[in-house]
């Protein structure tokens, strides 16, 4: 069974439906956050009806992780109602693990918005103050690994500090928004360091994320980092522990 990660959706549900239509049938699909749930036109499960129908037709299971442009209440308090209303689209817990055939997957949602101080960002309307990654996540992931073994792939919304793109990529945004939000750069750096500690706790050798709207891959030591662009499907293939044999 194929496993795909899809980059940020931002409410583009028709486009997501088309992406699902083009993927092989029977896939497990993880949307890595910024689904766009909780805004004025996406506060009810019916906003995902088109996506859910396509997923059912293709035999997909579609997992929607929480990003910084998603209402945490849906994941923390309402996910059972959303899951009851949908068939093949699933709202997982913020910190979630599952086994897909022989692949152990751990997902951790949440992230910090660079534009959280923008005057048009209104709490509980189009921005949510509890958007960030749970500080207890490293320990919770560590307990999962103790119980079930190391993860093959860790999926988050934002990336760890050692992954590309680097913090320097956001320097212009930091400088702009820090005029009214002096803790922004520090909070984003701390969060990416927190995600790095989650990577360590997961013992995963592949980490996939979105958030930065670019498609790129980087490596540090034995860990491969994959950033998915908006609506980009990326297939995870479990890597062998052994290197390939040399060609004859």
UniProtKB/TrEMBL annotation:
<dbReference type="Pfam" id="PF00149">
    <property type="entry name" value="Metallophos"/>
</dbReference>
<protein>
    <submittedName>
        <fullName>Metallophosphoesterase</fullName>
    </submittedName>
</protein>
<dbReference type="InterPro" id="IPR004843">
    <property type="entry name" value="Calcineurin-like_PHP"/>
</dbReference>
<feature type="domain" description="Calcineurin-like phosphoesterase">
    <location>
        <begin position="3"/>
        <end position="214"/>
    </location>
</feature>
<dbReference type="InterPro" id="IPR029052">
    <property type="entry name" value="Metallo-depent_PP-like"/>
</dbReference>
């Amino acid at each position: 069974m194929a496993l795909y990660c899809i980059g940020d959706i931002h409410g583009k549900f028709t486009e997501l439906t088309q992406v699902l239509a083009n993927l092989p049938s029977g896939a497990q699909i993880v949307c890595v956050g910024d689904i766009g749930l909780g805004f004025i036109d996406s506060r009810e499960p019916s906003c995902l009806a088109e996506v859910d129908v396509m997923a059912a037709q293709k035999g997909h299971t579609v997992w929607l992780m929480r990003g910084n442009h998603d209402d945490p209440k849906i994941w923390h308090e309402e996910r059972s109602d959303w899951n009851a209303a949908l068939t093949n689209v699933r709202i997982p817990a913020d910190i979630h693990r599952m086994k897909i055939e022989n692949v152990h997957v751990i997902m951790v949602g949440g992230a910090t918005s660079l534009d959280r101080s923008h005057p048009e960002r209104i709490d509980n309307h189009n921005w949510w103050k509890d958007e960030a990654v749970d500080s207890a996540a490293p320990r919770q992931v560590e307990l999962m690994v103790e119980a079930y073994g190391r993860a093959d792939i860790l999926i988050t919304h934002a990336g760890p500090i050692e992954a590309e793109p680097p913090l320097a990529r956001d320097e212009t945004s930091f400088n702009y928004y820090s005029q009214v939000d002096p803790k922004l750069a520090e909070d984003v750096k701390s969060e990416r360091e927190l995600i790095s500690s989650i990577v360590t706790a997961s013992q995963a050798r592949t980490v996939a994320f979105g958030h930065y709207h670019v498609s790129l891959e980087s490596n540090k030591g034995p860990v491969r980092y994959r950033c998915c662009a908006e609506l980009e499907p990326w297939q995870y293939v479990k890597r062998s522990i052994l290197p390939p044999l040399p060609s004859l």
